[in-house]
Amino acid sequence: MAEPYGESPLAARAEALADASAPGAVRLSEVAFTTQVTLRVDPKSPAAERIGTALGVMLPNQAGQVARTERLMVAWLGPDEWLLVAPEGETEQIETTLTDALGEEHGAVVDVSAHRTILQVSGPKAPELLAKGCALDLHRRSFGPDSCAQTLLARAGVLLLSRDVEPPSYWIFVRASFARYLADWLCDAAAEYREP
């Protein structure tokens, strides 16, 4: 069965990412074809509460927070903006849920699934690797699980999301047009962790 968006932005880099991974240190891969929907709504409105109830998780209300259910992540992007991420094929269901809960209140629901892909960086050396191109303090005390930030990584605008502490695991949401550049940068930056 064909993928809904054709080839993933990093299909041509899959082997390079695997080869750049260093067992026991860092692993690089693409998480392709996820459902990604942005939501804009007044967080203090009745609609925001209805949306949280309908999703089974309340919208995060603090900068950099991520809320999760078993199949859904909701990342805080701004005071009235969130990114909802779910497995492939759930776009229509999420859009319907959000639109129904929004009702007649002012807001926006937009499918951005084809806009970005996700690079996963995991392993004990993942924070050290990312620190080579990112100014954020990635220590787990400052940027622990279920934290996110819009930042620069190797001069590319990304949404960085911390998923787990042991071993550290991050998702990097990057525009499709920058995906190959960032994948190549990560492969190069991970070279020191591979055995000669």
Automatic annotation (TrEMBL):
Superkingdom of origin: Bacteria
Pfam name, any one: SoxG
InterPro entries: SoxG (IPR007375), TrmE/GcvT-like (IPR027266)
Signal peptide limits: none
Residue ranges of the TM segments: none
Name used for this protein in its record: Sarcosine oxidase subunit gamma family protein
